[in-house]
Amino acid sequence: MKLRLTTEEKSWAMYDWANSAYSIIITTAVFPLFYKAAATDAGISGSDSTAYLGYTISIFTFILAMLGPILGTIADYKGMKKKFFTFFFVLGAGSTALLAFVPADNWLLLLIVYTFAALGSTGANVFYDSFLTDVSESERMNRVSSFGYGIGYIGSCIPFILSIAIIMLAQFDKIPLSMTNASRTAFLITAVWWIVFSIPMFKHVKQRYFIDPEPRPVLNSFRRLAGTFREIRKYRGLFLFLLAYFFYIDGVGTIISMSTAYGTDLGISSTSLLLILFMTQVIAAPFAFLYGRLADRFGTKQILYVGIAVYTGVCIYAYFMDSVLDFWILAMLVGTSQGGIQALSRSYFGRLVPKENSNEFFGFYNIFGKFASIMGPLLLGVTAQLTGNTNFGVFSLVILFIIGGVILYFVPDPSRYDPVPEP
Q1: Among 60, 196, 258, 351, which residue's beta carbon has the most beta carbons within 10 A?
Q2: What percent of the chain has pLDDT over 70?
Q3: Which pTM was predicted?
Q4: Alpha helices by DSSP H, 233-357
């Protein structure tokens, strides 16, 4: 099937292009290094500064996990989805820009502003994901979602390269900027990139499916949310998928988030780790597109199993990892599947949900995704400590992919699933 994207679909996907700059520059690469340097200069030990960053991530993750379904349920009312998306977008992009103006020696204020930036970015993504049901039909969602992830990886590379170039030029005194101001420039680049390329989303994407306004919308939203919990068995397909997603996406997220620790244990330098991270993004882009095409041809569930199998292989290979070359191989394998498995999970879920309640259910989707970031690192850490070997810790993640794959087997095909519960 040849897919020609509509203006709405392309505009929706462009937000992936816009927001991915935040993911790599703020979440993964530049901000953590900037914060660590600020904390060190303030006399905070390395272990304490890492712990404080971890606590910050846990705090905003918990807040979003709790608020997601509630806000999503309210946003299902006509005209509310774009308003919630806009609020979190302004909070995220504005706070990201504000990071550039925080005094470099104020590590605590950095964490506070970062919390608001992360709340904005993650919160906007809840409503962005749910807009997939508004811009695309069920049979097109695999390709559209994969297209979003694919151009997101491409888009993230451009500001990342620009930011790293500025930082490295400053490091070698090739431009009249200090390292601190070079990092601040990267924060501004991220905010500007995010804002400019979000314009098509605001201009062309509209809420097509909704619930008509009611008196006391907040109270009625809580009632609808409670009703969903009471009738959870009637949404069996949806919640089976969420349970499967909880396990396998936990493994995916753990491998991505802990990759720097693996590399450090192998003695890989920071510069090399940034290069490997960049190459993983480059590899991920075409494979995200490929996953969408393969899902249309062979079925979404089948290609999700391919992704799960690749990650299972990564965990097994990690057991034998003992060189920089092994780390490169693992990183490239992860790159082949990290975008694809996330894109197809989003589209598969989008095809299962009742469209007029998409925000409510995508709120649950994000809860499962957020809480899934707890179990994997815990499993890895405990196993690594008990065995004294990080490789055993990574290998232990195999169990998450096996459990997720088994549960996924019982999830219905979206083309034969009626998301409206029986009375």
Answers
A1: 351
A2: 84
A3: 0.78
A4: 236-257, 259-265, 270-298, 300-319, 324-352
